[in-house]
Amino acid sequence: MPQYLLSVWHDEDYEVDFSTPDAQRQVAQVGAFNEGLQVSGAWVFAGGLRPASSATVVRSTDGDVSMTDGPYAETKEQMGGFWVIQAPDMDAALELGGRAAAACEGPVEVRPLQG
Amino acid sequence: MTDSLEAVFRREAGRCTATLIRLLGDIDRAEEAVAEAFTIAAEQWPIRGVPPNPGGWITTTARNRAIDRLRREATRADRHLAAHRLQSEAMEPDHNPEIADLDAFLDVVADDQLRLMFLCCHPALAADSQVALILRLLGGLETAEIARAFLVPEATMAQRIVRAKRKLHDNHATYRIPRAAELPDRLYAVLGAIYLIYTEGHTATTGTSLTRVDLSTEAIRLGRVLAALMPDEPEAIGLLALMVLSEARRPARMDSRGSMVRLADQDRSLWTRALIEEGHDLVRACLRRNQPGPFQLQAAIAAVHAEAPAAGVTDWSQIVTLYDQLYAIRPNPVVALNRAVAVGSLDGPSAGLDALVVVDLDGYQPYHAARADLLARAGRTDEALAAYTRAIELASNPAEREFLERQRENIADGDL
After folding, report:
1. I need a labelling partner for A36 at 20 to 30 A (CA). Which of A45, B43, B183, B371 fits?
2. What's the whole-number mean pLDDT along residues B232-236?
């Protein structure tokens, strides 16, 4: 069955404070959404990410490895988490994307995996 | 002969492509097969004559060519399988035991077209891609023709179409009619795309218009197809009525110098009576269902205009009522602008300007043009001149600009 990446996007300085009521509500919503994915068989893998400032970009040129501090894309928006789901077709994937966006209260990008 | 093949192509290409996409499960292969079938028709029909059911002939020929091609390329077992499936696939009444009569067969083919319309107008595609795909796949237009129609380079249009097709392919988009729950939104995407094609053709008044494909005619053709496919959708009928009634006014929209003539000043004897009558019939047919929607209401407004033998006897109170209903369903600033113009005609320019206060459309040419006209009629000449200047800055084609400049001169001369 086709697989899709559902990614959640935040402002780059976004950092979750799990003690706030907003965050707790979102965590509960995402938990329920995840459970639904597992029950329906759409679940493949998922995870939330630490802030983009914790990222390191590693490059390999002719065996020489170099590192730079920070995320690869120097954009205002960064990926905050993702799901990999399986769905029979685009419309089914987009519907799950819509539910994911509602659960995490933010925009979700739906993108098909190769193969 | 070539005319007749061209007529068949205009009428049948979209239908055949739609069916071939279902059979082949692939847009590119379907387009290729249909193109090949038309090439064969161009060779054979002048000698053997046009077959009694040209569309069926093209579809069958395209399918057979696709089978041959799949066999030729069949280095893998799954291709053999695909060719086999294609051969046994429901296609013509006499080849398919499940489809006993011709009506049922035609239903299947009609569904193919509808499915393709919904696929082309998938909300995951940008509006300009939707329009390009629908013209390419359902209109059978060449990429170069579509590019010319939208005044973009052919390479840009080709890339747009390739990217849209690839997106649908990569995302495993399915070829189906939306479920009842999704239908209203998905239908609006289709109606919106067809109307966009119409308005693009309607406002295309640049000097190159002679070399442009007639988008308005194509949009009306697509509107007729959609209305026939969805006879129970009053909005589909409403869209067709709106386009037909707008089209009826086309001969009066430009004067001999190619300058735009606004509705109030048009020579109504130039309006196409047959289209007005058709439009009225359609408006009555859809309003009878009592499920008013934006396209039906806009069509009803156009019908009220069409009923008036002269601009001075337009039933403005009915038009304002219809705009009120439209605004209740679609509370957007463009509707508010048009409503304010109608109020200005019903209750005078000051009332119109009052109704305009809530409208915030600074970057929109028609807003400044409408405001300028109301200000001029209210005797506020300086403000009117400034508003015309702004409208002229924003005008997107020469005919509009020429009209607005003339209006401004008239006011400056104190000759309203």
Report:
1. B183
2. 93
**Contact flag B172-A2 (C-beta cutoff 8 Å):** yes
Whether the per-residue pLDDT at B349 is higher than 90: the answer is: yes
On whether residue B365 sits in a domain, the answer given is no
B141 assigned to some structural domain: no
Q: Give contacts of B 166-185 with A, CB under 8 A.
A: 168, 170-174, 182
Chain A CB contacts of B168 under 8 Å are: 90
Q: What residues in B contact A97, CB-CB < 8 Å?
A: none
Contact B172 A89 (CB under 8 A): yes
pLDDT in tens, B82-113: 666 565 554 443 444 344 454 555 566 678 88
Q: In this predicted complex, what is the ipTM?
A: 0.88
Question: Phi-psi category of B331—alpha, beta or left, where left has phi over 0 and alpha has psi -120 to 50?
Answer: beta
Domains, chain A, with CATH or none: 3-112 (3.30.70.1060)
Contact list, B122 vs chain A (CB under 8 Å): 90
Q: Do A89 and B173 touch (CB under 8 A)?
A: yes
CATH number, position B37: 1.10.1740
Q: Please check whether residue B415 is in contact with residue B392, taking contact to mean a CB–CB distance below 8 angstroms.
A: no
**For residue B241, which of B281, B206, B187, B210 has the smallest C-alpha distance?**
B281
Residue B80: give the domain boundaries: 1-88
Q: In sequence order, which residues have a C-beta less than 8 Å from that of residue B288 and are 6 or more positions away?
A: none
